[in-house]
Structures are given as structure tokens and as C-alpha cells.
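Need Transcriptional regulator, LysR-family's 3D structure for a figure. Predict it.
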Amino acid sequence: MDPRLPPLNALRTFVTAARVGSFNDAAAELFVTPAAVSRSIKSLEDHLGCALFHRSHRQITLTKDGQYYLAHLGNVFDQIALATQNLAAQRAHRPLVVCAYPTFIIDWLIPRWSKFARESAGLELKFVTTHTHDIDFEKSGIDAAILSDRLEYAPRMSEKLFMANLVPVCSPNYLPATTLASDDDEWGHSLLHSETRPNDWRRWAEANGNMRIDPFRGQRFESSKLMYEAAIAGGGIAIGLEELLQREFSAGSLTIAFPDSKPASCPFHLIRPASTEMHPFFQPFREWLLSEVNTKREPVKAAALQPSGINDRPGFPQSAALGLSQPA
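Structure prediction for Transcriptional regulator, LysR-family:
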């Protein structure tokens, strides 16, 4: 006897033929030919090393070995069918797990989704955050992610949602209004970084042709939210996504650092494994997401710093306020 498990199709054919008592009727039920049923049964008998049926011209009957085998296999396929139905039911009631950077979830996703969720009962989502750009979807149980660090996410399925603008921001009282992006010897030592997005200063520097600063030097924070709070408190100049800073711009707690600053483009993507396409909540969520990114909204424009007395700016380093350069 072959110690390996027999083919599942052969077992299914055997159980069906034994139940209906006919190779012809089994073939009709399985949508195959009677010859295919006969070959499958013969293959299984060769695998097991015993005969499972007594064959006659018009009928088949189980041998003693066949009766024993059927008694122990009879409900296996019912159990498989039940397990499959239960899995489908469980997935139907499992929320769609969506992962994104903390700031994106807090400042962009939740405010928009909360309004939609009130009007659309039955769609259940679970939001989780990430501080990395590499998501192990299967291991972590995540269905979809919204990320922006790469241009493509193969072999996962992905589509571009929108282009965001990277801009330097700071407290309105941090820089003299006349400070330009090209005056990097005055402000280049004051960079704030988010470890979630370690390449943003480099991207902005390249977009502005400004490579005299070290885009990786400065204070670091675990998340963009902490970095923004440090900038609000006068701790330096943060690099942020304009579309995620609307509340700070409206409140006047942050503003664009330089009047001549050119935004750097930053694409956001919706990424997921192919299996997520089968989740009952995914397509409604995707359609809502695409409608949101395609809806034209007037963003709050953060004004460039307005002139005022240098002595009114306690948050700005004294050496920069005097027009002196500090060591890099």
C-alpha cells in the first residue's frame, strides 16, 4: 500500500459511487464520463492495494474493504462542505482590516469614514496603524493598506489613490518672514524627522534643487504626529503632507515655512493581496475611497510667514534671527 494520502478527487469519486451504487449515476453527479469514474476508482484501488467494489455488468457492490473504507470516509466531505460554509460565514461577519500610517488614519481617513459610516450601516472596518512600509498581510491579518513610500508594491495588487504635497512647516513664530528656502545655512540645522517617513526631507530637497542641507540630520520622532507637535511647540521645522495638516493650518498652529518652497510630490497607494478582493466589505470600501480622493475640496491654504518684528519670535534660534549661520 502506498503510504501517501490518496488523491482527493479519487476519494470523492469513491464516496459518490458507493452512495449511489452506480458508476453511471456517479458520473452524472460529478459531471464526468463513466469511464473517468472507472479509471479513478481503479487508481484508488491500486493506491490502496485492495478492491473496493465487486463489479458486474449492471451493478456494483462494495467489498468488505470498501464497506470499511466508506464507513470511515462517508462524512469527510460533509465536514469539508460545512467547514467551507462556516469559513464563508465567518468572513462575511469579519471586519475589513485597513492599515495605514497613524497620521493618515487620524487626520484623513477617520474624519471622512466616520461620516460615511453613519450613513452606511453594515460595513464594518477595523483600522490599525503601521510604522513600517513592509506589511505581511497574511501573518498580521491585514486586508488592505494605504501607504506612500514606494512607487509600486508588486507582487501585491495596488492602485494609486492621489498625489500629496510634501512641504516644510513650522510654528508661525519660529522663522522670520523673510527666510527663504535658499537660506539653508540659517535653518538647515533645525530639521525635524518622522521615523515613519525617513526620506521626506530628501525628497523635498531634491524637488527644490536644495542639496546643501543634510536631509537626514536633526531630531527624530516615532511618528509624524509627534513631529508636528514638536514643530507647533517651536522645536524646529517639520516636513509634512499638506493634505493631512488642514486642521493645523486652520488653527494657525502651523504654517508653510518658506514663501518660495516648492512642494514635492508623494503618491499614496491602496495595496492588498489578491484574496482581499473576495472580502464582502472591500469593494464598497474601495469605491468609497476612490470617490473621496476624486471629490474636489478646497484645501486650507497655509499662508507663508508674514513679516513682524524679529524679537516677537521666541521660537526661532537666536543665531538665525541675527542672520548668523550656525555650525552644521
